[in-house]
Amino acid sequence: MTLQVFTAVTGAGWESELVGALDRDDHGVTVVRRCVDVSDLLAAAATGTGQAALLSAELRRLDGDAVARLHAAGVAVVGLVEPGDEPTGLRLRQLGVAHVLPADADPEVIARALRDAVAGVPAAGHDVADPRAALPLPGTPVQPEPPTGGRGRVVAVWGPTGAPGRTTVAVGLADEAARLGTSSLLVDADVYGGVVAQVLGLLDESPGLAGAARQAGTGVLDGPSLVALTWAVRPQLQVLTGPARADRWPELRPGAVGTVLEEARRVAELTVVDCAFSVEDDEELSFDTAAPRRNGATLAVLEHADTVLCVSGADPVALQRCVRALDQLRDVLPGVEPELVVNQLRRGPVPGDPRREIGNALERFTGRRPRWFLPADRRAIDAALAAGRTLAEVAPGSALRTELRTLAAELAGAGVPAAGRRGPWRSRRAG
Fold first, then answer.
1. Domains of the chain, earliest start first
2. Is 319 in contact with 361 (CB distance < 8 Å)?
3. 38: buried, middle or exposed (CB in 10 Å: 19+, 13-18, 0-12)?
């Protein structure tokens, strides 16, 4: 069977010769269209007339989103670079191009790479109304594996609507992990109104996550450039702020966010991501899988995370929202298994022993028991917000701060100093 291929090779005098060589029958490859730019290539891919695309790194406006859209259309991608140009080859791989060859490679070698690339592209598996269409296809490379020397963990802090305290938990977790000696990166990925910058008294006009996503989309993001976009709150804690305005959510493309998280693993032992609540489909955009999805960034974070914390409030309304949110998450991302964190635990909203009653209710309706209970401490939280500081700085003896420290120690695989312990606790090293 002849493989039908698109080409998009600009600024190269050898394109015509290569196309002619590939069109020979003995290679099993036929060039069905020679595209002049990314828009032309994406339009051709949407027709379903080709199985692979052969492109050069010099193609104008080529970015990770374009590669992801080609993969979503079922078109495999092979990149060509000038012989010996390793930086350009690395950039193509960062954009998601798994097969990169020198432009002077033998036509048979290029044809074989095209066939291998087509064999490695999985079926889409999602219809046009599925919110998972906003994510890169399974098996699509985001970046090459990090070099030997450590791979940090990513913890996503997610939960239902209604302000159950996601940001409080995310900030406290990152801060306490840093105080235990774990290098930590706190990322604000809430596309509906992240407030990490305000909580910590930082300026929210810095490029932050949006700037990192732009660099990731063009394949130039690396460890030093990511660190340069962060705020250094203390030597072991860095913060990547979210978009300054909620209407800038289109800048956080899912593929780019995934690349940022993979790079974050290189620069921090623990990355804590404050997520938005919603994982539902954007109904008005369901007809167009190429359109940006507001919840795509949240879905990307949840899929890339090693641990997902679902933060719920401790009153009947919050618990009902938690149950529904978990059902929705199970439908959208069945492979994600969150750990339950009950926040704002107090007597009053729930009769009897709130810890026991809430634990039993969540186990009955979700099949999961909460792993952690965080006590309500409004006075300490208000003091921290008023000062733009963390709980450890303004209320070191707070019961909430103590429990957050224990949670951070378990997730980071660090021990809690004896003075900070509260009751029996055993360390569990993160796997």
1. 3-121 (3.40.50.2300), 153-420 (3.40.50.300)
2. yes
3. buried
Cβ proximity of 195 and 384 under 8 Å: no
Cβ(71)–Cβ(52) under 8 Å? no
∠ CA 362-366-370, nearest 5°, is: 45
Q: Does the predicted TM-score (pTM) go above 0.70? A: yes
Burial grade of 74 (CB within 10 A; 0-12, 13-18, 19 or more): middle
Query: What pLDDT score was predicted for residue 419?
Result: 44
Q: Which residues make Cβ contacts (< 8 Å) with residue 209, sequence separation at least 6?
A: 187, 188, 189, 240, 241, 242, 243, 252, 257, 260
- Token pair belonging to 152: 């940090």
Sort strands 52-56 and 76-81 into parallel, antiparallel or unpaired. Answer: parallel
Residues of the chain with pLDDT under 50: 124-149, 284-287, 418-431
What is the rounded CA–CA span in Å between residue 6 and residue 370? 52
DSSP assignment of 129-151 equals T-GGGGSPPTT---SPPPPSS--
Residue pair 50/139 in contact (Cβ under 8 Å)? The answer is no
pLDDT in tens, 332-390: 999 999 999 999 999 999 989 999 999 999 999 999 999 999 999 999 999 999 999 99
User: Residue 30 half-sphere exposure, CB side, CA atoms within 13 Å?
Assistant: 8
For residue 402, give both structure tokens: 């103590």
Question: Which of 234, 272, 264 minimizes the C-alpha distance to 404?
Answer: 272
Task: Quote the CA–CA distance of 72 and 297 in Å, as a whole number.
Answer: 17
Q: Specify whether the CB–CB gap between 57 and 92 falls below 8 A.
A: yes
Amino acid at 167: T
> DSSP secondary-structure letter at 372?
E
Q: Tokens representing 249?
A: 């959510």
226-235 as b/e: b if 16+ CB within 10 A: bbebbbebee
Place of tokens 């269409």: 133
Rounded Cα distance, 68 and 75, in Å: 10
Helix, strand, coil abundance in the chain, percent, nearest 5: 40, 15, 40
* Of 189, 187, 157, nearest in space to 343 by CA: 157
- Distance between CA 431 and CA 429 in Å, rounded? 6
Q: How far is CA 126 from CA 18, 135, 157, 207, 333, in A?
A: 35, 10, 26, 33, 12
Query: What tokens appear for 307 in the block?
Result: 């641990």
Which tokens is 386 given? 């008023």
